[in-house]
Structure formats: structure tokens, C-alpha cells
């Protein structure tokens, strides 16, 4: 391999060839229970009496024979492993959903979890009888589950009604109804009768039920309807919906277009799907490089074509301001497939059900498109307690069809918290959510555009936005194609135009590296993002301003290795980090890794939305182990090569040698993220660790697959490991390939390989 630093060094692939099986023993203890079993039992019996009285006050037209109650856990038992499964099984409670429970205690806001349980009077009576049973006849697991409970009650009206401002009087809302299985139709019928009694035209309702999940109902209602329906027992929540279809029309400034369109001699085989307001196919910069596919039944409008044309132009060319005046653009390396889903036919369809139905129809049919861009969605911050149909739909399509959705986070970042939070469907856990950056007027450094919405994301992907691309602002606008007049550019700003930059790069990664899949592209893009603070809620994992060539490039002493594989729930995999033993490294070594997975989702459990995850543990030195004794708190670290005598002495004293080497904790996330279990159960994690060479010897990661609620779906994962030794005088790239022969540079197609001549 050439030693010239100017040579292009492709990213290294086939990391999966290094993966080894491994076994590991897991330890963990329960937190202290807040009450004895007797205290907890008596407390619950009192609460059950209140539940019975409350149910008696709910008329039969507002409930089913099987009713829904809430079981709220003590704050110490928030982790997923503390779900009271034994209680649910023995009491025959059907756990149909969960969400976060926020409450105040001693003027302090606290967080825990509540479960929605479906049962009937017979089941409730049987549960009361179990509680009256002699304690000696009840299992310890059941008693401990009882001790975890803080409260059993019905959901209150103010917990059902979510996200309404004091000024709200009328508008479109989305009702979310609990899953009722074979009784769903009967439940919906009762719900519609209640709405009719409140004056709602039920013929105009839009209803969508997902198998095994909740039912979504969209309706145009007045304030009195919300208050009148909130005690309908199968109702989980209701929240307002509002759509500003093309919010990025932030500027109508135009500037003369001094660029010449491409000659259209060749067209790319790499496709990007764009769901938006349609495009002007006759625009000289789009002609030959785009195709307007079938659309929804509404008529296109001028603002929609303007927005869609601008978005498509960004996917093809990026910011037009980057090109020299009077230059001719080259044929773009991606091709745009446009699908018009805006405006919807019904102006009151603020939940975009027509658009979602269309997307659910198109995506499974188009096997030639792996990446889709969405630069629109309902206005308003996401709510932790509820997941919109739009978000769940995209996550499900990503899982079922192995697609990558790139979504703009929204433009309300200048509003006061929490109204500045990201907007649906950018809270997806199986896709990329993109914010916008611009340039600081004084220093010209990159910074979040003030309008770009911020995180946190929801449970399952708490870091949002995932990354930021250039979206411009009033001082540094992004230059766009102008559908009104191709002789002029449109100068504007918005996350709508940051998202297609990322979507195009994702598609190009897949097109130029056929061995990659959308999950690898997602991991690579996040791994390439740069945040001076590592990660935060404003720009997520950072700014993405590199070209695809840069993303696919290694340097002599900064090397990226890709692992792509799958594993079963509860499975373990050892991923060796290829740090060469023969390299004479004497300076600090920086190791980082990005892990991305695809997870099936469950929109009935907002606090347990992802059904699978991967837990990662870093082991820096494969010869350093730990000696421990159950009766002594302090453990001893030993080297199994040089400390054999010491090890034997301590084993004689009753110590045991750990089954795996000593692990090390990577750098911590910010405080608010650290409080949320260091992103456990998230579909993306990114970690960093700097160490001295003496502390590293055959380092490796152990990945532990986690499946929730008995999930047995095999999970795909992609890992990008970066080894960075800035002051190394040798060639780390060559050293790795020479010592780890199963690794190989990824074969990258050039432009000529992906472009075909237009006859």
C-alpha cells in the first residue's frame, strides 16, 4: 500500500469477520423497597376500593365490560427490568400499554412509569381475594411486585387531555384509543356514539387501527367535546393537531441565478425518494434528473411546488451558493423520485392521514428506493406520553422494509421551552432526524440555526436531532431552485432544506458502496457528525458538513472500521477492536464507536417503545482481570500473565477470578442524558474513550442483545469503530490491514460507475 498521505484511503470493512462468540455472567440487585408487603397490600386494597367507586360512576355507554385502570410504579422501579410480570400473570391482568408518569412530591418533580391494565370485575375480585390470602401462601416474587406499586387508579381527565393551550377553542385533534382486540369495533362504535351526543359529525372521522396496537381517530371538534369525552374509559389520550404545510417559506427574497444547468448527458442510478408538495419537472435544473410519480388525489398548489422543487434541488445540488458564478453544474450523482402528498384533499386533515396512507402504500412497492426525505409534518412539540400515527408508521416501515427515513425536525426552535422541542415525525427511532446549522456572524463558526427545533427525543432515541446540516438563516441564507422563475434563486432558511442534504448523502453512500445497507449508512452519518460537546440536545451528535468522499475516507492515523451483522435477543458478541500489537504507539489513543440498530416498535408502550436494543461494554485490556470476594467490598485488579502467583494466593483465600477482563466506562453523556440510563434501549449510541497505550491490549467490545416482552426477532446492527492516534509517526491504516488480514478496504464506486448515458 502506498505511503503517500495524499492517497485516498477507503474506509475499512468486513469487521464482522473479527466477531467472536462470548459468554458473560450478569449481576444486578433490586433497589430498596419503599414498604413492607403488609404495608403495600393494605395501601393497594384501599386504592382498589376507590377504583371500584370511580368505575361505578362511569356510565356503561362510556366503558366496556373489560375496563382499563392504571398501575403506577414507585420511582425506584423505573427500569425496564422491574415490570411486575409475576403480578400481571397471577392476577390475570392484561398489560396493554405504558407511559411516563410525572408527579410532584415535596415540591419536587419526579418521574416513574404507569402501566395500562385491562381487566373486568371478575379479575378485580380475584385480585382482591389474592391480597386477602395468607402471606405464607404467596410467592416472594408476587409479594415483591406488590411492593413496587405506588398507586392503582383510573386515568384522570387532565392526564387524558394533552398539549392544549388555554386559548384553544376548536380545531383538529387526534384521539388515541386503547387496543381492544376482537372488541375493537364495538369499542369504536361506542366512542362514535359518545361523539355524536356531543355534536360531532362522525361521518368525517378518520380512523386507523394497527393490529395489536391502539386506534387513532382524527376529528374536528370544539372544546366542550374534549371535556365531555375525556372520561371515556378506553380513551388513552387526546391532543391537538396543526399543520403549516410549508413552514420554510421563511423568505421570499430572490437573487439572480448565474448558474447554468447540467448538460444532462448522464443520469445517476442512485435514487432518493421525496414526499413533499410536488415538483416542477420542466425546471431546467430538474429536467432529466427527477420524476414526478403518482400523487394523492388533491390538486397541486403553487407553494407546494415551490417547496418541493427547492427540496429536490437541494437533494441534487446542495446549497447553490457553493458554486462559482457562471459555472455549469455537473450531472448530479443522485436522482430524485418525487411523490406529492401535499396539500391533502381535506383542509381539516391536520393529522395528515391521507398522506400517511399514501406513504404506507408507496414504500413497500418501491424496491429501488432505500432512502426517503420528509420535510413536513404536524406543528407542535412531541409529547412524551404519546406517539403520533405518523411517527409509528415511519418506524414500522423502516423495520418492515429496511428503509431509511430522513426527517426535518421543525422550525419552532425560537419558541420558549417546551414548544421548541422537535416535531413529529422527527421523533422516529429507526431513522435520522435533521436539524439546521448556520454560521456565526462574528467567528464564522458553525452553530445551530436559532429556528431549528431541539431535543430531547423520546424514549428509544433520546438524542435528537441526530445531526445537523446546513439550513441557513437570514444572514447566511441557503440558495435554492426557484420554481417561479428559473432565472432566479430563492434565498431562504429552514430544516426542510437541511434534511435533503443528509438524505442525498445517505443515498450516495448506499449507491457507491453496494455492500452497505441503510443501517450502515445511518451509523456512518452519525459517526461522522462532529459536536464540540460530544452530544447535546441542540445539535445532537453534531454538524455534518463532510462530503461522502470524506465520510468514506480514512487517514493514515485515523481509521474507521465497519461491522455489520445481526444477533438474537439475549445473544452476545465480542467485537475485537483492531489495535495493532506490533505498532510502536507511545501517545494517547482515542477510541470511539457508534452503534445503530433497527428495532420493532410498540406504540402502546411509550416508555418501552423500542422492543430491542444492544447494550455495549468496553474491555480495554484482555489480560487484566478482577479478583473479588463476596464478603469483601474491595476487588483486586491483576494481569493473568504476570500475576499468576498473586492470583493463586487470593483464590486460596476464597477470591474468584472474573470470567471477563476488567471493563472501563466510556466518557459520560451530559447530566440530563446520564439520568436516563445512558441511552439504554436507544437505537443509537455513540461513545468515546481516550487511553494510554499501556492500558490497551487487544481491546474489544461486548454487545448484548436485549429483547423486551419475550421478543424473539433477530436484530440487525451496524457498528463504526474509530481509532485515532494523531501523534503516531507510523501508518496506522497499513498496520491494521497488515495485522488483521480478514479486514479489507471497502470497494467504493466512482461517479462513472453509478452514472449511465442518456440516449
Can you give a write-up of this model?
The active site is at 276 (charge relay system), 307 (charge relay system), 496 (charge relay system). Belongs to the peptidase S8 family. This is S8 family peptidase. With 759 residues, this protein is an alpha+beta fold. Among the domains are: 9-25 and 554-745, no CATH class; 37-159, no CATH class; 170-241, THUMP domain-like (Alpha-Beta Plaits), CATH 3.30.70.1510. It contains 17 helices and 35 strands. The strands form ten sheets. Strands 13, 14, 15, 16, 17, 18, 19 and 20 form an eight-stranded mixed beta sheet that branches. Strands 4-5-3-6 form a four-stranded antiparallel beta sheet. Strands 8-9-7-10 form a four-stranded antiparallel beta sheet. Helix 8 crosses helix 11 (495-512) and helix 11 (495-512) packs across helix 12 (518-528). The radius of gyration is 28 Å and the shape is flat. The two termini are 40 Å apart.
Question: What's the helix count?
Answer: 17
Oligomer: single chain
Distance between the termini: 40 Å
Largest sheet: 8 strands, mixed
- Low-pLDDT stretches: 1-5, 670-677
Tell me the total number of β-strands.
35
Instruction: State the helicity in percent bands.
Output: 10-25%
Strand content: 25-35%
**Structural class computed from helices and strand pairing:** alpha+beta
Shape: flat
Computed over alpha carbons, the radius of gyration is 28 Å
Mean pLDDT: 91
What characteristics describe this protein?
single chain; 759 residues; alpha+beta; Alpha-Beta Plaits; eight-stranded mixed β-sheet; four-stranded antiparallel β-sheet; flat; disordered N terminus; hydrolase
Amino acid at each position: 500500500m502506498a505511503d503517500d498521505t495524499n492517497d485516498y484511503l477507503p474506509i475499512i470493512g468486513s469487521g464482522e469477520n473479527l466477531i467472536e462468540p462470548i459468554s458473560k455472567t450478569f449481576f444486578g440487585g433490586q433497589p430498596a423497597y419503599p414498604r413492607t408487603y403488609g404495608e403495600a397490600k393494605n395501601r393497594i386494597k384501599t386504592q382498589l376500593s376507590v377504583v371500584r367507586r370511580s368505575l361505578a360512576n362511569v356510565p356503561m355507554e362510556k366503558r366496556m365490560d373489560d375496563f382499563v385502570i392504571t398501575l403506577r410504579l414507585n420511582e425506584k422501579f423505573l427500569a425496564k427490568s422491574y415490570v411486575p410480570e409475576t403480578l400481571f400473570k397471577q392476577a390475570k391482568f392484561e398489560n396493554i400499554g405504558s407511559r411516563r408518569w410525572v408527579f410532584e412530591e415535596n415540591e419536587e418533580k419526579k418521574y416513574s412509569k404507569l402501566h395500562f391494565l385491562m381487566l373486568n370485575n371478575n379479575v378485580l375480585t380475584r385480585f382482591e381475594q389474592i391480597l386477602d390470602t395468607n402471606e405464607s401462601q404467596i410467592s416472594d416474587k408476587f409479594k415483591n411486585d406488590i411492593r413496587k406499586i405506588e398507586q392503582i387508579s383510573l386515568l384522570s381527565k387532565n392526564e387524558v387531555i394533552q398539549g392544549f393551550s388555554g386559548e384553544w377553542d376548536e380545531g383538529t385533534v387526534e384521539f388515541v384509543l386503547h387496543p381492544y382486540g376482537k372488541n375493537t369495533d364495538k369499542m369504536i362504535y361506542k366512542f362514535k356514539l359518545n361523539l355524536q351526543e356531543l355534536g360531532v359529525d362522525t361521518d368525517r372521522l378518520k380512523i386507523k387501527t394497527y393490529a395489536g396496537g391502539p386506534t387513532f381517530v382524527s376529528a374536528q371538534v370544539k372544546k366542550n367535546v374534549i371535556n365531555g369525552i375525556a372520561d371515556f374509559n378506553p380513551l388513552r389520550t387526546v391532543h391537538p393537531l396543526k399543520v403549516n404545510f410549508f413552514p420554510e417559506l421563511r423568505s421570499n427574497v430572490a437573487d439572480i441565478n448565474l448558474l447554468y444547468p447540467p448538460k444532462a448527458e448522464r443520469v445517476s442510478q442512485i435514487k432518493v425518494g421525496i414526499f413533499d408538495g410536488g415538483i416542477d419537472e420542466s425546471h431546467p435544473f430538474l429536467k432529466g434528473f427527477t420524476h414526478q410519480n403518482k400523487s394523492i388525489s388533491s390538486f397541486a398548489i403553487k407553494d407546494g411546488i415551490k417547496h418541493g422543487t427547492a427540496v429536490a434541488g437541494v437533494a441534487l445540488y446542495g446549497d447553490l451558493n457553493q458554486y462559482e458564478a457562471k459555472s455549469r453544474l455537473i450531472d448530479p450523482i443522485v436522482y430524485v423520485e418525487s411523490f406529492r402528498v401535499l396539500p391533502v384533499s381535506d383542509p381539516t386533515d391536520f393529522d395528515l392521514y391521507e398522506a400517511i396512507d399514501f406513504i404506507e402504500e408507496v414504500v413497500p412497492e418501491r424496491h429501488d428506493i432505500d432512502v426517503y426525505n420528509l420535510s413536513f409534518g404536524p406543528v407542535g412539540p412531541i409529547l412524551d406520553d404519546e406517539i403520533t400515527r405518523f411517527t409509528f408508521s415511519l418506524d414500522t416501515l423502516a423495520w418492515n422494509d429496511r428503509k431509511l427515513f430522513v426527517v426535518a425536525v421543525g422550525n419552532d426552535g425560537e419558541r420558549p421551552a417546551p414548544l421548541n422541542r422537535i416535531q413529529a415525525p422527527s421523533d422516529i427511532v429507526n431513522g435520522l432526524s435533521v436539524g439546521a446549522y448556520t454560521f456565526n456572524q462574528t467567528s464564522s463558526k458553525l452553530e445551530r440555526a436559532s429556528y431549528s427545533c431541539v431535543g430531547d427525543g423520546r424514549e428509544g432515541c433520546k438524542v435528537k436531532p441526530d445531526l445537523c446540516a446546513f439550513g441557513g438563516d437570514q444572514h447566511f441564507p441557503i440558495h435554492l431552485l426557484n420554481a417561479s422563475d428559473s432565472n432566479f434563486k430563492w434565498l431562504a432558511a429552514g430544516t426542510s432544506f437541511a434534511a435533503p442534504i443528509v438524505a442525498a448523502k445517505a443515498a450516495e453512500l448506499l449507491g457507491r458502496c453496494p455492500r452497505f445497507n441503510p443501517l450502515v449508512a445511518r451509523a456512518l452519518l452519525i459517526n461522522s457528525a462532529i459536536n464540540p460537546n460530544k452530544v447535546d440536545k441542540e445539535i445532537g451528535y453534531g454538524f455534518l458538513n463532510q462530503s461522502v468522499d470524506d465520510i468514506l475516507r480514512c487517514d493514515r492515523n485515523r481509521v474507521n472500521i465497519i461491522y455489520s451483522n445481526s444477533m438474537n435477543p439475549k445473544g452476545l458478541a465480542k467485537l475485537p477492536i483492531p489495535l495493532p500489537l506490533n505498532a510502536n504507539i507511545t501517545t494517547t489513543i482515542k477510541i470511539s464507536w457508534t452503534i445503530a440498530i433497527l428495532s420493532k416498535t410498540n406504540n402502546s408502550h411509550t416508555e418501552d417503545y423500542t422492543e430491542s436494543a444492544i447494550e455495549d461494554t468496553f474491555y480495554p485490556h484482555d489480560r487484566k482481570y478482577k479478583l473479588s470476594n463476596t464478603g469483601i467490598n474491595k476487588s483486586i485488579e491483576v494481569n493473568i500473565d504476570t500475576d499468576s502467583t498473586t492470583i493463586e494466593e487470593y483464590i486460596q483465600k476464597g477470591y474468584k477470578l472474573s470470567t471477563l477482563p476488567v471493563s472501563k466506562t466510556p466518557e459520560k453523556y451530559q447530566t440530563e442524558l446520564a439520568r436516563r440510563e445512558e441511552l439504554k434501549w436507544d437505537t443509537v449510541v455513540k461513545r468515546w474513550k481516550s487511553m494510554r497505550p499501556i492500558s490497551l491490549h487487544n481491546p474489544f467490545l461486548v454487545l448484548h442483545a436485549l429483547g423486551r416482552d419475550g421478543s424473539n426477532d433477530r436484530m440487525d446492527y451496524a457498528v463504526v469503530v474509530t481509532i485515532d492516534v494523531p501523534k503516531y509517526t507510523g501508518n496506522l491504516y497499513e498496520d491494521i490491514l497488515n495485522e488483521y488480514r480478514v479486514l479489507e478496504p471497502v470497494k467504493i464506486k466512482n461517479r462513472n460507475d453509478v452514472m449511465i448515458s442518456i440516449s
